[in-house]
User: What shape does this take?
Amino acid sequence: MTLNVSGLGVTLRKRRVLSDVSLTIGKGELVGLIGANGAGKTTLMRAILGLVPHEGQSSLAAMQPLARGRAAAWMPQTREIAWAVTVETLVTLGRTPHLGMGQKPNDADRAAINHAINRMDLGLFRKRAATRLSGGEQARALIARALAQEAPLLMADEPIAGLDPAHQIATMECFAGLAAEGRSILVSLHDLGLAARYCTRLIVLDKGRIAADGPPQKVLTPQLLRAAFGITAWFEQTAQGPVFQPLDIVK
Amino acid sequence: MKRLFAILAAMMVLLFLGSLVIGPAKTGIGENLVALLAGGDGPLPLIMREIRLPRALLAVMIGGGLGLAGAAMQGYLRNPLADPGLIGVSSSAALGAVLAIQTGFAAMGSLALPGAALVGALAGVLLVMLLAGPRGSSLTLILAGIAISALAAALTSLVLNLSPNPFASNEIIFWMMGSLADRSMTHVSIALPFILTGGAMLASLGRGLDALTLGEDAAEAMGINLHRLRLTLILGTAAVVGASTAVAGAIGFVGLVIPHILRGFVGGRPGALLWASAMGGAVMLLAADIAVRMVLPDRDLKLGVLTALVGAPLFLHLIYRTRRAGQ
Amino acid sequence: MAVGLIGSAVKADAPLRVVSMNLCTDQLAMLVASDGQLVSVSRLARDPRSSAMVEQARGFPVNHAQTEEIYLMRPDLVLAGRYTARATVDMLTRLGVPVAIFDPANSLEDVASRLTQMGEALGREGRAAEIVTQYRDGLTEFQAEVTRNPRAALFSANGYTSGNHTLAGQILLTAGFANVAAEAGYAMAGNMPLEVLALAQPEAVITSRPYPGGSRAEEIMDHPLVQSMRRNTAGFTDHDWVCGTPFVLRAIGNLAKLRQELEAE
Assistant: This one.
């Protein structure tokens, strides 16, 4: 088991944000975390990592910081690149948990960095300042950074928000490929269509609690969509795979 | 990177020697250095060892410390406007030092004066971090800095004006602008332990500051202990700025100008910027201290005047750029 | 007002309510004025570090050279220094209060002329002439034989030193010393860099006593270099050095003793 969470709860500024969340993620799973705005997706992911005070257990939060850094890569929602470092330097930062103070990257580190850069198709941008790239290119550079971390679990908070359709699809395909290689992925997203197509499993958060957990076709039922999202949708298995299209707001 | 190191090192050595051979006692360069190294009779060895050497050493220590502290603060706050002078840390340190001198606490022992300045600097850093938040926007950071500087400067002036010593109130400018004139080995020895300890603390932050390029959450998830990083940064900055200000007054802009100039040469990496800024700071202060002696040899022109003449236009340029980037 | 006191007299048109607002005119006036003629002296007159006449000054109310307080004392003459409280002097002049301005003394001869000027201002020429005679007599006693002139430097806060054309410089010369500042090219007063002092290698260093509270300006006197020079022979300047009054005789006397000790070694 890559991740084991039980009875997780978070109270921020006296407001209950997360209650009694239990879940497990195994090898090779691509889990989509979905839910309306404010449902607690970001808080859940941060609590799993131990970045916010919480109750209950998370196998990641229990680890020593450095061990945790090797066990899970985390991509926050805000795509922060504070200084004009090259893409290569940015991706190298992903090796931080593997390098001690003042240690230079060895061959294995370099291989991981090159692999991540090629995987995200960033070869041409290698020596460019990351701050000068377009939003989509920056997003890819940050994903490459997370990949270079080579952790068994990758957690990403809305990694495809703001990307063009091609890069959205490419990113989800990349995640699916990683899962196929045996890594585990927990990704929060708002695009239910892409979630339905690529995720092996969906977890729905509603008002800080898990409303559903299972394969997409089991989870995205009309009742759940109405209760958790307030929408109706069209969802069919087609020759091109599952297709999900939101339709109306439920009054 | 190796070239940058070599260039900075060469400049440091040259300016250090320059600082040793320039002074009101017009004696030959070779004669000076022989007197410094070999000693001998007459006043020259004394002048070299007791007047010029401490001055050059202090320029290296304080310039290096301020450059390092500026680079570390900027890396942590991810803001190129963070400078110990601008955000009020130096003025708070000056207040601590002035209080210690005027209450007689500074006479209690050699650690009392830099210790008191350290406490002042600590209060300044904590206050600015509290006011500006973990990733303060430029505006809140500068506003907090102005408020803290103004308050600390006003209290410093008040303490000096209340002093029974008629010279004290004329020294407001020294505490605001800084000077290395007439310092002795005593000042080197009281400042050195603090600057070395604080400098070592700040130098250890490279890895964490690099990771912070990606933001606090990402850095923490990569195994960086942010609490320890913050504590080390605050204590290290307070020690370096406190001890520097205690012996030389508040010298501004070194921590702003040097990281700004050198950032491009180290590929923007906050960790590599640390050692580069330490060397660059030493170079800048050595040069400034030589300049004050050459421009107006008969008067004690304050170091801060020169650093501000270089730094303030750059600061305006940075504000302009930050504003445009924010739009 | 008693007219016709022993030895001297107050003229009929002499001022009756005199206020002094400068440390040096304070002392000159206290020496020369008749009883009751002087109504106030400056705050500094009671400061033992600056004033040689603290005890006498306690007998007068003090002022702070503020126009309003001076005006309310209804003086018919105000005594002021050339360079002090100029705004107050201007304002008082405009209000029609007579102000007598005294230049600072830059030589031992100036002491006598200031005393004479004070006598004229207060209508006490006789008393002033008496003091001048005593002063000159005292001065000639120091013209005694001096075998050697040891080189000495006056060095106080911020490296302040005085050349031969200053009161302090003349005190030094009259006490039998040679002035290092004059050798280094300082005719008047100025700030001498520490390096220049070290190069000159004076036999004696005469500094001021540090004020309480501490200041960076005075720290220069604690510099290891100055300390090592002071180990030879050290003297201090004090309240007798500040103003051009007959008390400079005491300063010369103390300094001459220092020179004799130095020569006895």
Notes: Chain B has one domain: 58-326.
